[in-house]
Amino acid sequence: MPSPYLAILILNYNGGEDTIACVQSILKDWRDEYELIVIDNASTDDSVAKLRRWAEDQRPPLELVFATGQKTAVPPETGQSNSPRLTLLQTGSNLGFAGGNNVGIRYALARGASWILLLNNDTVIEAGALAKLIEGAERSGADLAGGGIYEYDRPSRPWYLGGTFNWWGDRTVRSLRLPSATAIAVQTDWITGCCLLVRGRVFEEIGLLDEGAFLYYEDSDFCRRAAKAGFKRFVVPDARVYHKVSRSSTPHSAFQRYHATRSRVYFHSKNHTAGSHALFLIMFILSRMGRSLIWFFGGRWDLISASWRALEDSFRQAIRPQPAPSSPGIEEGRQRCD
């Protein structure tokens, strides 16, 4: 099988039905130069079995290739060639957003993919969006590109149309406008990992996603590294993707609060000077005190505990760096882009 022009990576964790819906939207505009790769992040439900049954029930059935392990060799030819190929990589343990996607990125790079697309499993691609995204990236000379992300339940409402880096939150979402009526892409600082298209050579030059955090902010950190290396980043607004907002992690949950807090502190420390980060920590701790007071009167003891536990764990990690855990003591949620 020749090297794919575009490798599409979908990370799944206990979200089989959403993953199938995402794959179905991709297959509507399938091209032979695409390759579809689903990375299962050690789901505890029947996601893998459900995906397999669905693939086998298609007419004609999808060519399904199974592989396991974090350093997966490219499987040999199966002899099938008339059907889209779906590769299912199984990580063996829950590696978080960055770790799970990195398994797929390594696989795609080994396959020689020219472009690699990270796509949330709780998204649906509008007809023709993949072609528009690729065309927009190629014509604008982008090294990284993203589509226009809209809410699935409110399809006219934008969720992401570009964004800028900032000091406090590390990134800001903004609706960037095309510079002219003939333009098809607009420059942006960062691109959401919900739909992130990257040239293979970018990963080869600056590395993969940072696994120092389990969940959240990996996308803006990766874009910062790309920016420092001189890679161009664009958004193609007409390449529409519909995101089932909050399907992949419960909003305002202890799980979300823990990882959002911990990742925010981790990546701020990484991307700013020691003095700047010290000032950030003072202001951030004061803001958490205010938030905790609001949560106290709202009866949200779980958010108070998760927020301060994340700060404690962040300080421990700074003193003794180690891979970020999947937050023991807090129920796991399904992974999503930030």
Task: From the structure above, extract its key features.
338 residues, alpha/beta, Spore Coat Polysaccharide Biosynthesis Protein SpsA, Chain A, 9 helices, 20% strand, globular, disordered C terminus
Describe the secondary-structure layout:
Layout: E1 6-12, H1 16-27, E2 34-40, H2 47-57, E3 63-68, E4 85-90, H3 96-110, E5 115-120, E6 123-125, H4 129-140, E7 144-151, E8 158-160, E9 163-164, E10 172-173, E11 186-187, E12 195-199, H5 200-206, H6 218-228, E13 233-243, H7 254-271, H8 274-297, H9 301-319
Parallel strand pairs: 1-2, 1-5, 2-4, 3-4, 7-13
Antiparallel strand pairs: 5-12, 6-13, 7-8, 7-12, 9-10, 11-13
Rg over CA atoms: 20 Å
Structural class: alpha/beta
Q: How many E strands? A: 13
**Global outline:** globular
Q: What is the residue-mean pLDDT, rounded to a whole number?
A: 87
Low-confidence stretches: 325-338
Report what the structure shows:
The protein is of the alpha/beta class. It has 2 domains: 6-243, Spore Coat Polysaccharide Biosynthesis Protein SpsA, Chain A; 254-319. The protein is 38% helix and 20% strand. It is built from 9 helices and 13 strands. The chain has helices at 16-27, 47-57, 96-110, 129-140, 200-206, 218-228, 254-271, 274-297, 301-319, and strands at 6-12, 34-40, 63-68, 85-90, 115-120, 123-125, 144-151, 158-160, 163-164, 172-173, 186-187, 195-199, 233-243. Strands 1, 2, 3, 4, 5, 6, 7, 8, 11, 12 and 13 form an 11-stranded mixed β-sheet that branches. A two-stranded antiparallel ribbon has the order 9-10. Helix 1 (16-27) runs parallel beside helix 2, helix 7 runs parallel beside helix 9 (301-319) and helix 8 (274-297) runs antiparallel to helix 9 (301-319). The longest helix has 24 residues, at 274-297. The chain is globular, with a radius of gyration of 20 Å. It starts with 5 loop residues before the first strand and ends in a 19-residue tail after the last helix. Mean pLDDT is 87; it is low at 325-338.
